[in-house]
Every structure is written in C-alpha cells, then in structure tokens.
Amino acid sequence: MEKLSPDWTEATRLWTAHRQHWITKYRSDRLFRFFCLASIVFLIVVLSAIVLFVSKTGLLVFRDVSPWEFFFSSRWDPEHHRYGAAVFITGTLYVTFVTLLMATPISILTAVFIAEMAPPRLQQWLRTLLDLLVGIPSIVYGYLGATLLVPWIRKLTGAPVGDGILAAAIVLSMMILPTITRITDDALCAVPNEWREANYALGGTKIEMIAKVLLPAAKSGIAAAVILGMARALGETMAVVMVIGNVAQWGFDLITPSSVLTSHIVMQILNVDFHSTANHALYMMALLLLFISISLIMMIRRLRLKGGSSS
User: Which parts of the chain span the membrane according to its record (predicted)?
Assistant: First the structure.
C-alpha cells in the first residue's frame, strides 16, 4: 500500500481538529441556549405562579366584603367583620406623593451639580457616596428615623408621639434620593456634548444650557428615575413600619400616626388565619401593590423606549 505524504497527513489532522472544534462549539452553543431558555421559562413560571396565587387568594375577599366597602370604607375592624382599606390605600398614595415632593427637586439639583458643576475628583467621590447610600439596608434608615427623627418632630411640632406621614416621608426621601440622583446623573451625562457646545456658540449661559437644553433632553431618563424612586417608596416596609405609627386612621395633618398598605400587611399577617376574610383582605392589598409596581415598571420601559427612539 502506498504511504500518504506528510502534507496530506498534516492536512487530514488539521481538518479533523477543525471539525472537532466546530462540533464542540455547536454543542456548547446548544447547551448555552438550552440553559437560557430554561432560565426564561423558570422565571415566567415563578412570576406567573406568584401573580396567580396572590390574585386568587386576594379576590376571595369579595365573597364576604363588597368592593365598595373594601376600597372606600375607612373602617378596619376584623372582630366586627369590617374590612375597609381606604385608609391604607390613601395613606400609601399620600406618603408617596409627599416623599416625591421632597426628594425629586433635591435629587435633580444634586444630579445637575454632579454632572455639570463639580470638579472631576468631587464627581467621583459623590458618585461613590451615592452608590454606598443606595446599599444601606432600610432597617438602618428606619432605626435612625425612630430614634432621631421622630423625637425631633415631636419636640418641634408638639405632637403627642411624632410618628406619622411626615416622619415616613422624610425617611423614604432619604432612601430614594440616591437612586433618583444617580439615574438622573447618568441621564444628564448621556446628553451629547455637541448640544452643550451649540448652546454656548449661540451665546447661552451655563444656567440657560442646563434649563433649556440639558434637562429637556434628559427628561425621559429623569422621569424614569422618579418612577423608579416611586416604586421603591411604594414597596418599602420596615423603615415605614418603624416611623409611621401603624394606626388605621387618617393622617392628612402629617403628624398623626397612620398606616399604609405595606406596614399594615406586616403588622397583621401573623395575627390572622390563612383561610380567614382578614387574610384574604391582606392578600388583596398585596395584589394592589403588585399591580402598582407592574404598572410603574411598564411606564419605565415605555419611557426608555421613547427616549431611545427620540435620540
């Protein structure tokens, strides 16, 4: 038999190695795609199960309580079969509104200072500080609010206890301020420098550039930052529980102890039977929070898509 030439043997070896490489790569790609698909399916199943379970359990409350009483009555008294959640729903919206009223202007002004006015070294230091503040556990904010802020409010206003919407809003403002500031800072930095230079070329001042060019150009990112802060304020529990008072009553004067959906769920969930109407009412409150959070996330996604298409 004729022996193969060395060149032919080397070509055969290289072809075999190349073929084995592509087979291995193909299998790796198939395996990677399989794990990605499995992860997506697992995530969808888990989220769907959570939504279905909370929805099914929460909607059971309307077997014993009318929707009108649940949403519009302010009387929560399970011993007398009264399950009005208006105080908690209104308190949640009120706390969120006051929180955003405090945190949004400060956050935007701080972001403008970091992005446009601070020296580079100070920018880096402030951004690092904000990142650290975002990671502080909420229980720390709540403890500081309960031990320092509440006594200060009680002394300043003469209120009997000092707990209430005002204390909760201040604590939540401190918590969401780093989040809104950092996202707004990123949105401002994403504005092209050519737009700034065009403003200066037309004789505009720095203040005019910020007010008429920078902020309007970054409005989608700023709105997304505010909505994300709102979502965190709506879902916060432990810090609010420690400073709001946890009483089922109106707190429109800001210094009267009140309650919100999250704090009421935490305070009541261990004291009710799972198959009771009270527990179903708590799950209905959780369902409201879930749908509010989903709505806010959808708004953020829409704003980002709008911002991307406009740019």
Answer: 31-54, 83-116, 128-153, 159-177, 222-244, 281-300
The whole domain housing 79 covers 67-310
155 in a structural domain: yes
- Residues 87, 136: one domain? yes
The predicted structure's pLDDT at residue 4: 46
Residues 54, 185, single domain; the answer is: no
Measured distance CA(214)–CA(171) in Å, rounded: 30
Q: Under the phi-then-psi rule, with left for phi > 0, alpha for psi from -120 to 50, and beta for the rest, what region is 133?
A: alpha
Amino acid at 160: P
pLDDT tens sequence across 59-90 = 999 999 999 999 999 999 988 889 999 999 99
162: left (phi over 0), alpha (psi -120 to 50) or beta: left
Averaged pLDDT of the chain: 88
Q: Is residue 197 located within the same domain as residue 273?
A: yes
Contact of 78 with 278, CB cutoff 8 Å: yes
Mean pLDDT computed over 265-288? 91
Q: What's the sign of the alpha-carbon dihedral 133, 139, 145, 148?
A: negative
- Rounded Cα distance, 143 and 152, in Å: 14
Mean pLDDT of 177-197: 92
Q: Is residue 3 situated within a structural domain?
A: no
- Predicted confidence at residue 18, as pLDDT, reads 65
Share of the chain above pLDDT 70, in %: 89
Q: Do 227 and 259 fall within a single domain?
A: yes
Q: Are 129 and 142 in contact (CB under 8 A)?
A: no
Tokens of 140: 């720390």
CA distance 65 to 188: 49
- Counting the structural domains of the chain, the total is 2
